[in-house]
UniProtKB/TrEMBL annotation:
Protein name in the entry: Cytochrome c
Keywords recorded for this protein, A-Z: Heme, Iron, Metal-binding
Species this protein is from: Lichenifustis flavocetrariae
PROSITE patterns: CYTC (PS51007)
MF GO annotations: electron transfer activity; heme binding; metal ion binding
InterPro entries, per the entry: Cyt_c-like_dom, Cyt_c-like_dom_sf
Gene3D superfamilies, A to Z: Cytochrome c-like domain
Matching SUPFAM superfamilies: Cytochrome c
Amino acid sequence: MKPFTAIACAACLAIAAGVGTATFFFGGVFSVAASERDPALVNWALVHVREASITRHATDQPPMSLDDASVVQGGAQAYASLGCQSCHGGLGVKPARFSQGLNPQPNLKAVIEDITPPELFWVLKNGIKMTGMPSFGTGKDPVPDAELWSVTAFLKRVPSLSSDDLAKWTAAHHG
Ligand code: HEC
C-alpha cells in the first residue's frame, strides 16, 4: 500500500469510528434507563474514577475530636434530620420506596469501614455526580462543616457501636 493510501485509510477508519460513536450516543442507542444495569466495564470504570477522585480531593482534616461522645451523638441526630435514612436506611428506619430504584444502589455499609474520615466528610459536603448522592455543602443553606464532621464521626463509629447504644439513640429520635 502506498503511504498516501494508508493515511487515507486510517483517516476513513477514524471518521467511521467517530460517526459510529456519535450515532451510539447522540442517536439515542445508548440507554440512560436507571432500571438497566450498567455494563460491567462501565461500572468498574465509574467506581474506580470515583474512588481516585475522592482520595485526591479529600484533604480537609477534622477541626474537632471525632471520638467525643457528644459529637458522635449529634452526628446520629444530623444523620436522621438530613434525610440520609431515606436512601441509606439505618437507626431503625427503612430506606424510602424510591431508593429501590436508585442506580447505583446506595450501599453505605459496604464502604464505611474502609473510607477515611476526610473522604467521608468530602463526600457529604460535595456529593457524588451520577449516583444520586447529593451534596450537603452547597445550595442556599449549606449544612455547616461542623455538622458534616459530626455525621462523619457518627458513621465511623457505627461498626463498633453496641446494639444497645443504637437502640437508645433510635428511641431518642423517634420521640
Ligand atoms: C437521594 C438518595 C441519597 C441521600 C438522601 C443520601 N445518599 Fe449517600 N449515597 C447515595 C447513593 C446513590 C450513593 C452512591 C452509591 C454507590 O455507588 O456506592 C451514595 C453514596 C454515599 C457515600 C459514599 C459511598 C462510597 O461509595 O464512597 C456516603 C459516605 C454516603 N452516601 C453517606 C450519606 C449520608 C451521611 C447522607 C445524609 C447526610 C446521605 N448519604 C444521603 C444516595 C443518597
